[in-house]
Write a structure and sequence with these properties.
Helices cover 29% and strands 33% of the residues. A hairpin with a 2-residue loop joins β3 and β4. It binds coenzyme A. Coenzyme A binds next to β4, α3 and α4.
């Protein structure tokens, strides 16, 4: 039903609509265009036929994956779209392989915290007053399940 495909330039206008629907500090066209050109960035979108319904992004920094964002249109929430997007990012992270995935989430964002917990992310730290719009704290959540141990240790 939903397909997960790499983000392309042609998706950016729809992505901006999604950003404005989902976030109080939405990313801009310029920010997504920079992401498209960045060698460390990986972005996927979720499509329902021609409709863009969600996206996820990750930066690869050395052996760590930083999930930059994930969002799903309100109309399509609780249908497993974010799960499909996270499955894809985890598949990519395992492929590199990366030793951990980490992200920041608003302290009050229970749906997102619950999603990440379901995927094995655990709360590991706090960035006080991280979000500029309301000074809300960010919880740092990290998933270390994809640690690939060297066979000669
Ligand atoms: N309340 C509690 N848990 C929720 C939830 C909610 N409203 N929505 C999702 N979850 C959790 C549940 O654990 C759920 O598993 P379950 O259905 O077995 O209970 C799990 O997430 C997977 O749900 P899924 O349907 O794949 O998520 P989604 O497609 O609805 O997307 C968000 C989840 C968080 C991406 C979506 O609510 C969203 O876009 N929110 C606004 C943007 C945002 O806050 N992004 C995160 C930035 S850090």
């Amino acid at each position: 039903m939903f397909s997960i495909i790499p983000l392309k330039q042609e998706h950016v206008d729809k992505l901006i609509e999604l950003e404005n629907e989902c976030f109080s500090i939405p990313w801009t066209i310029r920010m997504f265009e920079d992401e498209l050109e960045s060698p460390i960035a990986t972005y996927y979108v979720a499509m329902l036929e021609d409709e863009l319904v969600g996206y996820v992004g990750m930066w690869q920094i050395l052996d760590e994956g930083h999930v930059t964002n994930i969002a799903v249109k309100k109309k399509y929430r609780r249908k497993g779209v974010a799960s499909l997007l996270l499955d894809k990012i985890i598949e990519v992270a395992d492929g590199y392989p990366l030793t951990m995935l980490t992200l920041e989430v608003r302290r009050s964002n229970e749906p997102a915290k619950s999603l990440y917990a379901k995927y094995g992310f655990v709360e590991e730290g706090l960035r006080i007053g991280y979000y500029a719009d309301n000074n809300e704290d960010a919880i740092i959540m990290t998933r270390r399940e994809q640690i690939h141990e060297s066979s000669d240790i």
